[in-house]
Amino acid sequence: MKISNFFKRTAAMSIAAILLMSVSAHATVEDIVFDDVFDAHGSVMLIIDVDSGHIVEANKTAVDYYGYSYEELTSMAIQDINILSAEETKAERLLAASEERNYFNFEHKLASGEIRNVEVYSYPFEEDGRNLLYSIIHDVTEKKVLENALESRKRTMYWLGAIFIMIQTAIIIMLNRGLSENRRIQKELYESREKYHSLFDNMQEGFALHEIITDEDGRPVDYEFLEMNKAFMENTGLGDVRGKTVKEVIPDTEALWIEKYGKVAIEGIPINFESYSKALDRHYKVFAYSPQKNLFASIFLDITERIEMEKSLKEEKDRMRTTLMSVGDGVIVTDMNGAIEAINERAEEISGWSSLEAIGKDVREVLVFKDEKKENFVEFMPLDKILGEKSTLEWKLGKCLLDRKGGITSIALNASPIIDENGKIHGAVLVLRNTAEENKWRKEIEYISYHDHLTGLYNRRFFETELERLDTTRNLPLSVIYADVNGLKIINDAFGHEKGDILLKSAAEVFRRICRADDIISRVGGDEFAVLLPATSSEMAEKLVDRIRDEIDGVKLETGQLSVAIGWETRTEENQSIEEMLKMAENRMYKRKMSERAKIESKEE
Q1: Given this model, what pLDDT does residue 351 score?
Q2: What average pLDDT does this structure show over 360-367?
Q3: What digits encode the pLDDT tens for the residues 571-592?
Q4: Distance (Å, whole) CA 151 – CA 164
Q5: pLDDT more than 90, % of the chain
Q6: Residue 464, domain CATH
Q7: How many structural domains are present in the chain?
Q8: What is the SS3 assignment for 331-357?
């Protein structure tokens, strides 16, 4: 991979801006071979045409990272990699070109089709009249996944596997819009020195330039700090140690560090590693390369926080497992094939299987279900559907579990796949709850909501629900009886509500004795009753009304004769409305009531 002489000089100028104060004593700008640094650098680097988005140059790390060959990658445009649209990608390039913004967060697509989160530092320069961008790409996918995973653990108390995050670091090399002539490059370097020094000092990564010190046999024994940025001083806590050796600053420096850096400075082989510094009590991710022989630059990131997050994540995972095993509901954990890996005490009680018996067995053997409404129907855990479709199964009502001894327990079930951050399934978590008491309460609540507390008959709410259900052709002819108990208010006023309640209960008992099992008897008001008669003709309804009247005539109470006004109506055609049928039945009832009241008044006269 070759880069033009002009670009080398421009890039060399930017590197020189960083190394100027210390390197000048050892080498000139032209001594630093940019091709080697560019190609051997551990960070992903691209040169991009501002107008077209064409990838002009890519280093070896970029080729390895994106998974394309060098020829493929340099024949592509950045919009082929960035998942933003071509228009959106161009808008971002123009922001970088105008230096309105130099830092971006994107999602890039690799040759494998995998989408990765990246942060991009992009700076403009010119070459042969072309407007180009120098872009340095950091992969931050694992960092974001780790942060999201830890937060998710605390929020949902759910299973997650351990996440190990590798954070790549990179160096920000600022390119100057220079001219081709050496004198103009030197002038531009002088004028922009302060600008680049400010950028260098404000890098997130710690940066230091060193010179290796060897013994008489050429073995590295120490190294001197030549230059460093603010991040280095602050993250290490060493302050400004330029001109000092590492053994002067940190006498207990491990030989490992000196050996690694010595190999970089002498052999020119870049390295990338993570290590723990006992002297500083910190964890670091380090990238080191040699800009020239016997010198090495180290770019590092303090990853102590990440290591502590991983440790916290593991502790959180252990706590979550302990919590899952001790919750009030039954919990069973299976592997990808359905073999039980863990079962808590509550699940042992519900299933009748001990942990020693259950672990290793297929969950479909341990958990066998029945439908409450289908006596001979046996159902097994649909694990293939849960794992295959990555879906959650939830049974709230209507399921029973056959325990190992043949007992039946009403249960609610929630079964979910265990999926890691990469979408891979590792098994399933099943939560069982004994719902016997819940079912009992539900039935009691349901009874109360649909029954009249005084008479035990259905209430108006149930009557209206059934009326809607029976509003179909197959239930024709549909008849309804409306009845009103006479004299309730008078009895309540004269004898008290207790006697009035006896009157209502007596009327309800008559309806209960005379009506058929499929008839729906309801108390729909204070003194009003209604009976729905599916598949009942007008003649049949009339006979039923006559029987009710005969029965009522035989009821003598302490307060007098039981008297009930009754009307009925039959719906025979589908185009006849339910409301019309009810209204006609009610009208007949009131006419009957008025007629009976007139008879009583005539007798009294």
Answers
A1: 86
A2: 88
A3: 999 888 899 999 999 999 999 8
A4: 15
A5: 41
A6: 3.30.70.270
A7: 2
A8: EEEECCCCEEEEECHHHHHHHCCCHHH
**Buried/exposed code over 402-440 (b: 16+ C-beta within 10 A; e: otherwise):** bbeeeeebbbbbebbbbbebeeeebbbbbbbbbbeeeee
Shared-domain flag, residues 471 and 554:
yes
334, amino acid identity: T
Residue 393, domain member (yes or no): yes
Rounded Cα–Cα distance for residues 235 and 248 (Å): 19
- For 432-458, give the secondary structure using H, E and C: EEECHHHHHHHHHHHHHHHECCCCCCE
pLDDT in tens, 121-157: 999 988 888 999 999 999 988 877 777 766 656 664 4
> What 8-state DSSP symbol labels residue 80?
G
* 488/417 same-domain check: no
Question: Tokens 């009710």 identify what position?
Answer: 548
pLDDT, one tens digit per residue, over 210-246 is 999 999 988 999 999 998 888 888 877 888 999 999 9
Please check whether residue 116 lies inside any domain of the structure.
no
Q: What separation, in Å, do the N-terminal and C-terminal C-alpha atoms of the chain show?
A: 124
List the domain range (segments joined by +) for residue 335: 329-435
**Kind of pairing between the strands at 220-228 and 103-109:** unpaired
Same domain? 588 vs 480: yes
CATH number at residue 415: 3.30.450.20
* pLDDT given for residue 15 in this prediction: 42
Give 82's DSSP letter.
Answer: B
Identify whether 535 is part of a domain.
Answer: yes
Do 599 and 456 share a structural domain? yes
